[in-house]
Specification:
The strands form 2 sheets. A 6-stranded mixed sheet has the order 4-3-5-8-6-7, sandwiched between helices. It has a two-stranded antiparallel ribbon with strand order 1-2. The two termini are 19 Å apart. The relative contact order is 0.17. With 243 residues, it is of the alpha/beta class. Helix 6 packs antiparallel against helix 9. One of its GO terms (biological process) is peptidoglycan catabolic process. It comes from viral metagenome. GO terms for molecular function: N-acetylmuramoyl-L-alanine amidase activity.
């Protein structure tokens, strides 16, 4: 993707002036950074994608580091399921594998972070395949499914990983803000739980997202219509996680 951010100013100034400049930044929905001219000059965050407000404001220097020089960290995106075993399907017969293959490709185009996409060979080999890519953190892309009526967004993490939980919470907040579905929260899992094997044996912090129930027609419609926004939100979390 093209550059989505630009600096407010290139002027050199005193540390006090730089701190004041940092306070007077807000995000527009277009993704650009503009000075905050509102009364009081307080920090306002009107993030792109329906006013995501979960990320603390970062300084201009930090923005340059992320968006101009690029991140030196690596994120692995794990495609849930595989072509021969594609997971749950939507009312229009789109599988988890198909949906998340497209989502991963879009995220990779949007992020400034180095992203490696890993496909499942076998369930048992998947953690080793992820570890071989040597990521700083990883995100597994799934969709939920139950009884065609359950609704909402949730993110799973290994219950022994504080960093995994923190990553899960950032992703959950972003996903809920974008999709507007019920917030089912972040859920810690043991190794024997559903999804727990991957979460336990990937060495880096890892979170498994289930942004909507693919078998619920209403949930799926939201996920399909807001797929680009979902990719943008996840890409932004990845970039900020890469600082």
């Amino acid at each position: 993707g093209g550059k989505r951010f630009k600096e407010v100013s290139n002027r050199a100034g005193s540390p006090a002036k730089e701190r004041e400049d940092d306070k007077n930044i807000r995000y527009s929905r277009s993704g650009r950074i503009w000075p905050d001219c509102s009364a009081g000059g307080g920090v306002k965050m009107n993030m792109l994608l329906d006013d995501l407000k979960f990320i603390e404001i970062t300084s201009q220097k930090l923005q340059r580091l992320i968006f101009e020089k690029g991140s030196k960290k690596r994120c692995v995106l794990i495609i849930g399921h595989k072509e021969s075993s594609p997971g749950a399907v939507s009312p229009s017969d789109e599988s988890e594998f198909a949906y998340n293959s497209g989502l991963a490709a879009e995220i990779k185009k949007l992020t400034k972070t180095e992203v490696v996409i890993v496909h499942r060979r076998t369930y048992k080999e998947l953690p080793a395949d992820v570890n071989q890519a040597n990521p700083d953190f990883a995100i597994s892309l799934h969709c939920n499914a139950f009884n065609k009526k359950a609704s909402g967004s949730e993110v799973l993490f290994y219950n022994g990983s504080a960093k995994g939980k923190a990553l899960a919470q950032k992703l959950q907040t972003a996903i809920v803000k974008v999709l507007g579905l019920p917030d089912r929260g972040v859920k810690g899992k043991a190794s024997e739980d559903r999804g727990g094997y991957l979460l336990r044996y990937v060495k880096a912090p890892v979170a498994l997202i289930e942004p909507f129930f693919i078998d619920n027609p209403a949930d799926y419609m939201v996920g399909a219509e807001k797929k680009a926004e979902l990719a943008e939100a996840i890409a932004h979390v990845i970039d900020l996680e890469s600082v």
